[in-house]
Amino acid sequence: MGRLLRVHERRPSRAVTSLSSSASTRLSPLLAILAALAALTIVAAPLQISAQELDVPEGAYAEDAFDEGDPRVEKRLILDHTTASPGQTITAGVQFKMDPKWHIYWRNSGQGGMSTEASLTASAGQISELRWPAPTVYHEAGGEIITFGYGDDVLVYWEVALPDDLQPGDEVELKANVDYLVCKVDCIPGRAELTRTITPGEAPEPADATVVALFEEARSATPQPTSRRKLNASLRYSKAPIAPGEDFRAELAIIGCETPDAPDCLNLGPPPERPADAFVFDTLPQSRLEVARVSPHPTAHSGWFIELQGRTSSDTPSGDQRLSGVLKLIDAAGQPLPTFVDFLFPRTESAEAQAMLLGAGAPTDLNPGPTSPASPTDNAPSIFAILLLAFAGGALLNLMPCVFPVLAIKVFSFVKLANEERQSVYVHGAAYTAGIVTSMMALAGVVIALQQIGTQVGWGFQFQEPRFIAVVGAVLVIFALNLFGVFEVTLNPGRLQNLADAPGGARRSFGEGVLAVVLATPCSAPFLGTAVGFALASSPFVIALIFMTLGLGLAAPFVALTLIPNTARFLPRPGPWMLVFKQFLGFALLGTVIWLLWLIGQMSGAMAQTAQLIFLLSCALAAWIWGQVQFGSTTKRLLGGLAALAIIALSAWQTLTLTADAPPPESTASQASSTNAEGIAWIPWSEEAVQAELAAGRPVFIDFTATWCITCQVNKRNVLETPEVIAAVEEHNVAMVIADWTRRDDRIRAKLAEFGKAGVPMYLLYHPDSPEDPRVLPELLTRQMVIDAFAAP
């Protein structure tokens, strides 16, 4: 230890001399005393560390990577036993100790640096493979380069099995060679050869406690296989085999607990914020690989889901390879659980490769990422096709029952605008479009934010939150009262005389655009499911682009009317009838409120429904109070406005909490086991239930639905629960399964995503002869379509 101790004594001694000299010439006596105490503290820290340094023979110690005359790395060859018996297995390791802020690299350096190499030879005995503790992930160059390595200190080690025929007095010579690169800002190469001997003895003698503790710490930091961690890990590829020069995607699923009460359950902590911190992969020859996203497992009680993407080089592979690496898992208490995984990397045709292909014999309860198993990456639609579907789906939303009230209001507004100057018409069209696009972008922002924190969502996800439904209902009531004339949307009392005749301002058109988006999201028009499903599994830029295109499609019909000349001659002339029609439209909005109240009752029960009625009544009273004072004096407007806001705030505080916290009633799915009035015995959805029915030889029809989905309810009442379809169900012995997504269920969301859908409705028909290839029916059903599907072989 003498050499090492001298190294550490030299460095602080210079600091002490400098500080003491400065104190004697420039500081007061009191400050000089304080400075001396500080200097002793500086000296004490290195001396304490030096006292704990490892005493190794001269040949087992080396220091190099000199920078400005100082070594940046020290290395020691250490053993966990000073003497050992013949046939005993001992542990030998090389300890690297780096200066602060310097680091060396792992066996795979990542996207930069140079991999560390270490080897051990022995004059007698067998040596295991080198064991590496889990490395740290370094985000270098502002996060542009990801590398793997170690800072401060690390111990890599081997197990050495001594021969059984060793005689007393024989010595086993160990020789370790290391070659590495140490970096801070600059990088310095280093190389060393370390040697030491171990002498057999009658009784093995362990090394001192400090050395033993170092080896125990290194073993605990060494990645363990998933079987030892009691984890279930699976990997699937977007294509197999993966040819030279191809882009590919892989999905790595890690499950600690399928359910909370599962035996041998391992509760994992949350995934890291930065995807690259989750998985440290070994070198994959002829390929580039990176972690695209990491999130909680979508169906398991505890688990991670890691999405990888990469590209192979243009070189021709000689055979299959391996994709392996270290999962940087943590348990629920925050303790690290480094885990080693190793999978086939398919470069040639094989049965094992096909089994790992997405959608081919693999579990189907995983989030498939940007592309679904039904359409792998190489067959995925182009972004232009998706944008076209988004625009068409947005336009068709105007025909959905959800948007009817707002569509009627816009038709009424267009009648009022028909005789206006073209410039005024353009302003209203632009304001309506801006309201829609702004709302769509806000919705996209929420989706992106939830995606970035690892939460997966679907189209219409906000209608799974009772409080959101309650607020939408209040907005509709206030909007309806405005149409009834209880209050006016204006801030200029001087124009009160013209309110009956003047068209709604641009602000109203903007608000109508916002309302159209709010009411449109529960619907899933044709073409919309594919476009939104693609968006929700894509990058933030693509999500924003697709949602904006959806908005433009939704606004397109009205904007087209405003741009077509001479449209006014086909419309009725303005007159007193318009005031009556405006009030009639208020009742159309209140009809939508009835639907929202029914939703809350279905989701949270009668008490929540009553609370919502109280909230709506309070909002109506607040609107009436504002209508009484809005054209009065400043004092009246101030007092009336404060009273209205106080009523809404107090009511919301009391009722929205009850609306959200009320226990949900028995769900559609839980009631499904009994035959309803129409004669269909609905079976609650689960993968196990579907497989059981298929095994019994029955076709299986799955209705992915939600009570807030208008299209779903229309299909159910007008098609699925009609006598003709019920007769076909009985004739063909079809198992009718219902997957109710009224409340958030990540299993259903993952299943929708598997088929490229982001929302309901979705209809699947499985046949026992081809259970892996279900038929996807359109969002809008007809009776004959369903009957023909049941009859098809």
UniProtKB/TrEMBL annotation:
**Example GO biological process:** cell redox homeostasis
Where mainly found? membrane
Among Gene3D superfamilies, the record links this protein to: Glutaredoxin
InterPro entries, alphabetically? Cyt_c_assmbl_TM_dom, DsbD_gamma, DsbDN, Thioredoxin-like_sf
One Pfam family recorded for the sequence: DsbD_N
Keyword annotations from UniProtKB, A to Z: Membrane, Transmembrane, Transmembrane helix
Bilayer topology: Multi-pass membrane protein
Q: Which PANTHER family match?
A: SUPPRESSION OF COPPER SENSITIVITY PROTEIN, THIOL:DISULFIDE INTERCHANGE PROTEIN DSBD
Any idea where the Thiol:disulfide interchange protein DsbD N-terminal domain is? 84-196
- Please state what the protein is called: DUF255 domain-containing protein
Please report the stretch or stretches of sequence annotated as the Cytochrome C biogenesis protein transmembrane domain.
385-597
Which molecular function GO terms apply here?
Answer: protein-disulfide reductase activity
Q: Which residues cross the membrane?
A: 383-413, 425-448, 468-492, 513-535, 541-564, 576-600, 606-626, 638-656
Instruction: Give the lineage.
Output: Bacteria, Deltaproteobacteria, Bradymonadales, Lujinxingiaceae, Lujinxingia
Which Gene Ontology cellular-component terms appear in the entry?
membrane
Origin species, per record, is: Lujinxingia vulgaris
Where does it reside? Membrane
